[in-house]
């Protein structure tokens, strides 16, 4: 049997019709498969030993060679116990083939690299098996289906005069296409049409191409708009190609076909729900989810399609988001603004403008679907506004706004002494009384603006326990507005609404290395249930001696000022208990929180502190302890000045936490961070890293990109690469941060950044690492090709120019995925009903032939544990599934600032922190730089990619005394 649960003979029989068509292609790719099989199982005696051990230990028998794959033997078990390892066919190739440096996709594109295949199928390490449910729902489709993509070119019928064409909004495009389909419903049946929200439509049947006229009603006071819609066939997607890929007969990932199927699956919720990015939310909220203040929490979902062992599968996960309620504008103001009294409107005018500006409303005095954006409030009250209009007789008359509504709509305006809403657009003045306007649905409310009670309620809804999340997911799958609607069925796509049953493995935590007060290193066992350890009575492995440090107290003039002497003594005592020798501070410097808002004063203060410390301590201070009375946006200025200009390590803390009587845990947290930032070692693995701990040095790298918010269209993205600089502990990191073009996911000059880290490693250890393991964060499956064919090539090119050729493994870590695991029986879970730490899923729900797995590496004490999806793209170290899973899980225990395993492999976690630090630098530079400098910066950023490697980097060049320290944690 294979991992789908099918017998090889049955699967081969079903493919006999396709053999002739694929034989030549399979022949071309056979070298690819052989090369990476050797990479998974070793060479020579090691391979034969593996084969013999399976025959001996598991009672496997060897059958005839597969005629389509010479050199492949099938090992068939004589018994099939219920175990994940035993429900698959093990293929052993007896001939020797060297590992290919590049995987060739086709004879016409020999240099293209594609992700490696995993031939050992899954790991065998385990502490126990667990029966699980995964929120993957099997999808079946008709392989004979052809999905046609059409382009809809929409142009105004009347040519624009002296103006450039205006880009139509998504709402307008949707309205035009909706009218086109309604007017021509026999030619364009909605039941077999899906849209991407822009100018593309997908259909399961042929559509008539040509040009059609569409007329849109624009309102009573404006002329109707006419458009010409030209339908043109662009491409046809044959789902047989997707079937071939899922069966392993087609190496290149058919991204365009999967995207078209994904759009079809999204069409039903798009028509019935509010779409926000990739999420869908209902039009109405539940009464229990009212957050007050004119805001409610809406429960929605996000879904995607995945290639898995059981074929195509839909994964769906629930979410919650705060939206403004659909309600009259005046009612919204009464709920949203505390103490609002419409009779005293002038008193609340500023707050009203802040609450309403930019929101979207519709009017109630006439029937229309048109939406308007609030530009502000009128200067005059409703009773004072008059305007000129042309009467039916052609005369120009002046009329009061309130009287106009009374005469034309028979509506008497109630609130005449308050301003109107300014709904003007494109120089067309339009003032409407507030009482005739209603907020439309689907307008997000920033969660940071919520009151404490509302924020807590939204958080609880966003983090439901497993049993509630599982029930919500199943309800959404069966909902009439969910992804399993009539549209997808009309495309021949069906979804099983039952969760997939799987068997997961739980692997044990590694043993750790700590010390005791006398300095002796000891071995400790990690708690298997919660994967944490206690530092009471223990010390860090290597405590850094701290002789020169300074306290800068920004809370000195605030009500929450620091009680300095007790805090210093408790911090020193806690550090010494942890094996970190800390002396008294060189001096205490008081300051004020207001300094944070003045960059010049803050810079002067920090430079003076540094100069004074150099005089007192005869050397630069090792770090500054900065005490703040509250969180402040000036934090970014502090970090930017210290880490780029002055060259100081800083550690911030809050005065209210520092003053607490029982704050040992908080002080220990500060001590761990300080020790790690200064080059100490908090915790290490007791046993060597699996598989790669032979001869030679190994370097772990993490890479990530931080993008600006979606509303920001100018700011650059920031790439960060971190790398270990010690071996074999591999728990100290250096970082390199670079700006790059706006929202560019590809890391520009990744080879140069990694080479810098390698040279740093060589200076500290007098040898270059011979093995590199790079963990890449933030890329989707559609971007794997970019990582392999652009970033990997850049990496190899930079290394080869320095005559440096290490072996490389690249693993993508995807934290943003919709896959969730649930215990099949509640009694099997921990008190939170979450899956236990160390749970691995590498069957059924993973890729049918590539090397990937899901790992829950942390204890989930809040909500439902979220898995990290690890996908191996390139491997020159011949990792087995066991080796790599154990390696990644072990690395999750080396995170420096806590005493538990984390949910994301440590190099990626650090890269994420470093990239975010680059974002803070940018915000600080832009806020404190003259406008001309900012304008020049943006001009460079948008003009040429050469800016990435030249002018842009000088704004964020780390100080030499900081760049090789762990300043980012």
UniProtKB/TrEMBL annotation:
Pfam families membership: ArgoL1 (PF08699), ArgoL2 (PF16488), ArgoMid (PF16487), ArgoN (PF16486), PAZ (PF02170), Piwi (PF02171)
Basic and acidic residues: bias regions: 1-23
Source taxon at top rank: Eukaryota
Compositionally biased region (Basic residues): 24-33
Domain annotation PAZ: ranges: 328-441
Presence of the UniProt keyword Amino-acid biosynthesis in the record: no
GO cellular component, one term: ribonucleoprotein complex
GO molecular function, one term: RNA binding
Single GO BP term: regulatory ncRNA-mediated gene silencing
Positions of the Piwi domain: 623-923
CDD domains: PAZ_argonaute_like, Piwi_ago-like
Keywords: Repressor, Ribonucleoprotein, RNA-binding, RNA-mediated gene silencing, Transcription, Transcription regulation, Translation regulation
Chain positions covered by the region annotation Disordered: 1-38
Family label: Belongs to the argonaute family. Ago subfamily.
Protein name per UniProt: Protein argonaute 2
